[in-house]
Design brief:
Blueprint (H helix, E strand, L loop, with lengths): L6 E3 L10 E4 L6 H9 L4 E5 L3 H4 L8 E3 L3 H9 L10 H9 L4 H15 L4 E5 L7 H7 L4 E6 L2 H11 L16 H21 L6 E5 H6 L1 H12 L23 H4 L10 H4 L2 H17 L11 H17 L1 H4 L8 H4 L2
Parallel strand pairs: 2-5, 2-6, 3-5, 6-7
Antiparallel strand pairs: 1-4
Length: about 325
């Protein structure tokens, strides 16, 4: 988008797309939720395209920029846009019938739903949990499903997944105190989603627990369907049938397992020191969410480490070192 591009206050689009966003701290079961929802005969739920807030990162929240050829090209060129799997003619159709960025995104998801033969389309990108105000401003009719998992189990999964180029492993503190980074990262993302979601209408924002989804999948999915105002569909429970793999060593995600409890268990898999440090940094949120705490009193040594890590986070946390969009727009950065 070139300097001086006109813009207008946000207006509600007539489009019903995107119809839903599934969000949450990574490693919290967002892929499981996406696969279940995407199996519904009415719902086409894309997987991790990331582009919606990132290509307009420097546009103020509450502004829906006019669609220009340059902005449309930014969307096409975003490194994960290909995950929508839209043919070029579908993207061109969406562009031709759109005046603004929000209308273009809505039209893209209408095309995505049509491609899959479904009337409603949405997106699962965990990171959108920290962009709810922008998404809600652009798409006030969209529903948000925020999946939350015990942060200690999230940490166990994250320690196996993150590295210097992925997730919180990109943060400098990871090399020294990875569990502390996991705790602060989980607390930040879940807390941000709950804060911003709490400012939305009850029929637009809904929280679910990962533990409840795997322990009582039908009951939980019925609640999700009610929130989404779609009929319950048994296909959501059989999302894995015909896809499950049993090769040794592959992850639960790649194995397409059915809902499975106990994949991570902080009570047996976390060291005493890691557990104490995590709860020193994020125990308040664990308690707020109703999760059992294991540590009655944090030692003075662990408290000192926690204080140092907390100070680092406040000075150098991910909001300051997060990924930048592929192209910066000086006219918005300066505002």
């Amino acid at each position: 988008m070139s300097a001086g591009t006109p813009e207008r206050p946000l207006e509600r689009s007539a489009s019903r797309s995107p119809y839903l966003f599934a969000v949450g701290c990574p490693r919290s079961g967002t892929t499981l939720l996406q696969r279940m929802l995407d199996s519904h005969p009415w719902l086409a739920v894309a997987n991790d395209s990331h582009f919606i807030p990132r290509v307009i990162k420097y546009v103020p929240v509450g502004v829906d920029p006019l669609l220009t050829p340059e902005l449309a090209d930014e969307v096409r060129g975003y490194r994960r846009f290909y995950r929508l799997g839209l043919p070029g003619d579908a993207v061109r159709r969406a562009e031709e019938r759109s005046r603004t960025y929000g209308e273009f995104v809505g039209a893209l998801y209408e095309e995505y739903g049509g491609l899959h033969g479904k009337p409603l389309a949405g997106e699962k990108t965990p990171d959108y949990v920290r962009h709810l105000p922008r998404l809600h401003a652009l798409f006030p009719g969209a529903r948000v499903l925020h999946i939350i998992r015990d942060g200690r189990d999230v940490a166990l999964s994250t320690l196996k997944w993150a590295n210097e180029s992925k997730g919180p492993g990109r943060l400098a503190l990871w090399q020294e105190e990875p569990v502390a980074v996991c705790a602060l990262w989980w607390r930040w993302l879940v807390g941000t989603g709950r804060r911003d979601g709490g400012g939305m209408r009850a029929d637009r924002y809904h929280e679910i627990k990962y533990e409840e989804l795997v322990a009582r999948p039908e009951e939980t999915l019925r609640g999700n369907a009610e929130f989404l105002e779609v009929p319950f569909a048994k296909e959501m429970l059989s999302y894995h049938e015909g896809r499950t793999r049993d090769e040794p060593g592959i992850s639960a995600k790649k194995a397409w397992l059915p809902p499975t409890t106990g994949l991570r268990d902080w009570s047996t898999q976390m060291t005493e020191r890691d557990l104490e440090l995590f709860e020193a940094l994020a125990g308040d949120l664990l308690s707020e969410l109703g999760y059992e705490r294991a540590v009655e009193a944090v030692s003075a040594e662990t408290a000192r480490v926690a204080d140092r890590c907390r100070e680092w986070w406040q000075a150098e946390g991910p909001e300051k070192v997060g990924a930048r969009p592929s192209k910066e727009w000086p006219e918005y950065r300066a505002r």
